[in-house]
């Protein structure tokens, strides 16, 4: 089976982007280079093709209560025009997927989930929700572009002809661009001020090109998306999150504020391993699966994500570490035949982003 194509795949190919399979889709990895794209996003504004993500509308009388029992998100305190990050859990509290839920009204929501997990997420939600609640897969008809970086607000206001200074973090607004409906969401995966923009699939390329008409904007591939999110201390499903680990183990216990009896609630607080952020000596990046050991040689964990951090000038990583050793400060990464000294640090690794900046 060939990889799926987004509405922008042909454009990426025409620009000479390096393409590769990702979550069943053919996606751009880089255009002019990961380093250049990463630093441009930190300094100006980058746009990302995120059309492969899954979107589901969930509606009907009683949807708040029903959805609250299916996911970990606290929907009782989520106001219309706001969105919240959370988890779809297994019965034992492991993470089936992470994602954002948007609230449009009293019983009207949109769930945005990871591309590789979307078919399974849809089946799981349908099984957990009563038949009276409508769940509609709108992924195929929904285009999605991320605009991220310090210049993103000014670029957005210029193209939309609208003031978005009052749009708070994890808030959204329904707007229009040249008569086309656009949902403007102030969220993102880079640590920078930024926006996730949803619009009809067949209008995505025109909107993408209009954004690129601003000289401050450049296209950014999945390579720099990964280095940006890692610097921001944000986990990636399938690497730093999975069915074998709970939100509490990933440092997300503070987000589990829902009082609903949702699937996996009790197990979600279990801690056997801890996701630990590391700074690694040298220029060699640790890789997913590399063994993490104590300086004395005892293996206590494994790397989940690792990369050279372009904004910082050194190597960073996440690792699962046995809970009994998670308070240690010094470790060693066994990378092939090399041992790399590593030190536990705090996240976010990169602390200069502006995602939470108050704009009003």
From TrEMBL:
Task: Identify the InterPro entries for this entry.
Answer: GcvT, GcvT/YgfZ/DmdA, GcvT/YgfZ_C, GcvT_C, GCVT_N, TrmE/GcvT-like
Residues that hold substrate according to the record = 196
On whether Transferase is a keyword of this UniProt record, the answer is yes
Q: Which SUPFAM superfamilies match?
A: Aminomethyltransferase beta-barrel domain, Folate-binding domain
Record key words, sorted: Aminotransferase, Transferase
Which residues does the UniProt record annotate as the domain GCVT N-terminal? 8-256
Q: Aminomethyltransferase C-terminal domain spans which residues?
A: 275-351
By its UniProt entry, which Pfam families does this protein fall under?
A: GCV_T, GCV_T_C
Q: Which domain of life is it from?
A: Bacteria
A single Gene Ontology MF term assigned here is: aminomethyltransferase activity
Q: Which GO terms describe its biological process?
A: glycine catabolic process
Q: Which GO terms describe its cellular component?
A: cytosol; glycine cleavage complex
Which Enzyme Commission number(s) are listed? 2.1.2.10
Task: Provide the catalytic activity annotation.
Answer: N(6)-[(R)-S(8)-aminomethyldihydrolipoyl]-L-lysyl-[protein] + (6S)-5,6,7,8-tetrahydrofolate = N(6)-[(R)-dihydrolipoyl]-L-lysyl-[protein] + (6R)-5,10-methylene-5,6,7,8-tetrahydrofolate + NH4(+)
UniProt lists the family membership as follows:
Belongs to the GcvT family.
PANTHER family recorded:
AMINOMETHYLTRANSFERASE, AMINOMETHYLTRANSFERASE, MITOCHONDRIAL
Q: What is this protein called?
A: aminomethyltransferase
């Amino acid at each position: 089976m060939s990889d799926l194509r987004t509405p922008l795949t042909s454009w990426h190919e025409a620009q000479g982007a390096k393409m590769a399979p990702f979550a069943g889709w053919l996606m751009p990895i880089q255009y002019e280079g990961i380093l250049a794209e990463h630093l441009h996003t930190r300094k100006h504004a980058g746009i990302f093709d995120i059309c492969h993500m899954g979107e589901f509308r969930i509606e009907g009388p009683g949807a708040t209560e029903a959805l609250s029992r299916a996911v970990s998100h606290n929907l009782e305190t989520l106001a219309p025009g706001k969105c919240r990050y959370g988890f779809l859990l297994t019965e034992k509290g492991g993470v089936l997927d992470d994602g954002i839920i948007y609230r449009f009204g009293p019983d009207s929501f949109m769930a945005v989930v990871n591309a590789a997990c979307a078919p399974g997420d849809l089946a799981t939600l349908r099984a957990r929700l009563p038949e009276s609640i409508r769940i509609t897969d709108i992924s195929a008809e929904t285009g999605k572009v991320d605009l991220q970086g310090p210049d993103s607000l000014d670029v957005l206001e210029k193209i939309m002809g609208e003031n978005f200074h009052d749009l708070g973090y994890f808030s959204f607004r329904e707007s229009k661009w040249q008569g086309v409906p656009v949902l403007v969401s102030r969220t993102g995966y880079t640590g920078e001020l930024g926006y996730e923009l949803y619009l009809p699939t067949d209008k995505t390329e025109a909107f993408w090109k209009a954004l690129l008409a601003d000289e401050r904007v450049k296209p950014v591939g999945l390579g720099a998306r990964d280095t940006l999110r890692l610097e921001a201390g944000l986990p990636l499903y399938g690497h730093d999150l999975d069915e074998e680990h709970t939100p509490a183990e990933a440092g997300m216990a503070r987000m589990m504020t829902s009082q609903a009896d949702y699937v996996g609630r009790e197990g979600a607080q279990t801690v056997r391993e801890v996701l630990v952020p590391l700074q690694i000596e040298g220029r060699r990046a640790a890789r997913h699966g590399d063994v993490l050991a104590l300086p004395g040689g005892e293996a206590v964990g494994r790397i989940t994500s690792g990369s050279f951090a372009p904004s910082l000038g050194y190597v960073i990583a996440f690792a699962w570490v046995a809970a009994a050793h998670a308070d240690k400060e010094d470790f060693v990464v066994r990378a092939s035949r090399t041992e790399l000294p590593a030190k536990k640090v705090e996240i976010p690794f990169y602390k200069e982003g502006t995602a939470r900046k108050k704009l009003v």
